[in-house]
Amino acid sequence: MGRLTIVRKALSCTILMPLLGVASNFAMAQPPVEKVLTVGLAEQAQCIDPQQDNYGYAALEGRGLVDSLTDQSYEDPSKIVPWLAESWEINGDATSYKFHIRKDVTFSDGSKLDAHVAKANFDTLSRIPGAAGASYFRGAKAITALDDYTLEIDFSQPNVPFLAATSTGELGLVATATLAKTPEERCHVGVVGSGPFVLDNVKLNEKTEEVKRAGYNWPSALRKHQGEAYLDRVVYRIIPEATVRTGALKSHQVNLIQSTNYDDAAPLAKSGFPLEKVESLGTAVNLLINTSRGILADKQVRLAFSKAINRQEVVDLAFSGYKIPATGVLTRKTPGYLDQSQLLAFDLAGAKKLLDGAGWALRADGIRVKDGKPLRITVSFYAAPINQAFLEVVQQQVRDAGFDLQLRPLTGGAYNEALLAGDYDLHRWEWSLGDPDVLRQLYSTKGLNRFRLPPENAIDGPLEAQRATTDPAKRKALTDAAQKTILEEAYAVPVFFTQELWSDDGAVKGLEWGGPGAGSTSQILYDVTLSSVSN
Amino acid sequence: MMTRFVLKRFAHAVGVLWATFTAAFLLLYALPGDAALSKLNLGGGGAYSAEGLAKMRAELGLDQSVFVQYGRALWAALHGSFGVSVQTGQDALQMFAVGVPETLTLAALALVMGLVLGVGVALLAAYVQSPLLRGVLLSFPVAGVSMPSFWVGLVLLQVFSFQLKLLPGMGNDGVASIVLPATVLAIPTAALIAQILSRSLSGVLASPYIATARGRGASRSRLLVNHALRNSAIPVMTAFGTMSGQLIAGSVVVETVFSRSGIGLLTVKAVLFQDTPIVLVAVLFAASVFVTVNLIVDILYPFVDPRIEIGVRRLDILGARA
User: Fold this and answer.
1) Which among A56, A73, A417, A461 has the fewest CB atoms less than 10 Å away?
2) Nearest Cα to A373, choosing from A260, A294, A464?
């Protein structure tokens, strides 16, 4: 063949190939016989073990694979209902929990669930370092199977939040076969659970496929039907780009997308792709103050900083109105929420007065000075556009009061190290949990001591005590006291409540939410059906 | 001569691999934070405790001195073991190997498409008589290199997948899903090839032997393809080494935009997580590809242009030795 012919053939092949591709695409696009829900997720957790992963696997892909002893209602988080445990007893000071387990539950590999398997689950879990679920067992003295279907867990200290913890995906139960594997293996092979869905295959960073569990018949008391799930298959596609997720939804390549782009949410809703806003349970997005160093050791300065922030404006400018201005340390849906909107009202005049009173004089360029030093503070945060966006608004707002706020975006490792070392003036964080114990988890000086408080402080007392108080009224008094102190001393500056934006194609019915797992609200697909009417 | 040359190059390659391994290891070590911190997700919940962190670091061997850690990693690597990924617990080599075929297919297809497109544009530009048309054709490579592939990918995705619904926008299922990503990757490659080739062609076309061939009645297309092309190919081949690196790097962007699994996204996530085993495998892979491509290109030179001899030292060519 002459060289010219080769060139000609090559050129025509290059043109032919895309056409072949298009043709094959149509050949593959057959009407599905299975009822398949395709979800476009923004990220994929790397460790596919709901008990171990610290990045939200237990709330999304992992939630349908395992069942928990109890279930927590998202609409009313103080409501905890039976699931794998038909009933339970808690002793007077919450040091002993006794669960009575259903007798008809089997795992997807056919093995039976009983108290011995449950005990093995918790024993193994509490020994895996860094596992998400392990933290709930700190202080556990003994885990005993009293008989085949009764499990008792004893703590050395009272542990009131433990009941809510048993509803999380992180304490979802797995089969003995999974327990026999090493934690590393479980992280990449996945788990065998008793849930309404079974893991079919996983392609790292691309997709996860789950199929319906045949014979499933033990949903929690909160679910709307009995028996197997309605969906035959769930495909989670990982689509890191927000605009691509929107396009995928509009072109019906997916049914449901996570974290809808702010700019697309309203137009999508208008063209028949409804938007659902899922408010988080747990703490607000707070700026946590390192009270041990520098300028922010002065309470007046901290209070002034909080007053200078116009939270509604932050939400409108940085998030197109898709977040909620904070009115307390906990989000408004969290049990134990205390409304402290007065303390969080925008009050520029008040802020200026406080700073004047603290000896900070106004300089010509608008920044305040005292003893020759400018009012400069640094906020350290995980480098992501979403954080940069709202902190830039805050930066401009507090400048009006005379603050020179410096932004310090940090990537992964640097962020972790700064946090550990206390190398920050302000640091931004929040966490999800359907229980006020989240205050202790985040703010207690016994953990990371984010406020860098001295051992003699006003919040450790109530935070430790609430964990041990079974009387709901007394417990509320303690968590209220902790929240009041946090804001009156301005240890933390709540800015907004976060909510997740989910858009679907109008055909997804029966989507439900549950108590949070590993930092994110759980998504329940058990009652989901796909109507034939869509756009 | 050939054997000595290949052996020398092989030794050189080993040196390159060792150097990249060491550089990557030290860089990762020097970065703040470590894999244990990443795994604990320090940000929230109760997972963190000082003892838990210490225990995890001990388990991952992160509490040893840098020399010990490096020595261990190097020794294991020489035996073909890169340890276990901190994120997924899977054998690092295995985990990486799963993504390699996908990225290689993508890169290979992109290379072929880029080659055909680039050569086509360059030949066409040399073929046309009208200076206006030539100018337009030669502006394509410039445009191709200037457009960020991220943007091109998103635009193609919007048009061909979301609006016209002709091709799938994500995943690795079937021929259809590779078309758009390969096209996006092919464009900068084609641009580079077209640029280099058209320069080279115009140089060769000015040679006396071309005039002779034309004088003997060769048509324009025959001149180009049968006479000029082969002699213009050397600079393009030299660029292959750079291009292979470009393709691997470009696959990161393309895999993100088109939601495909492959080594690109895997490597980025590993770097952010400071998952050293995976990063080391990735770095070694990239270095190996680079070295191999360059070696193959060097071996192919004399087949394309017999005037070039491999392994001949410069003094010999100049005739200083007998």
Assistant:
1) A461
2) A294
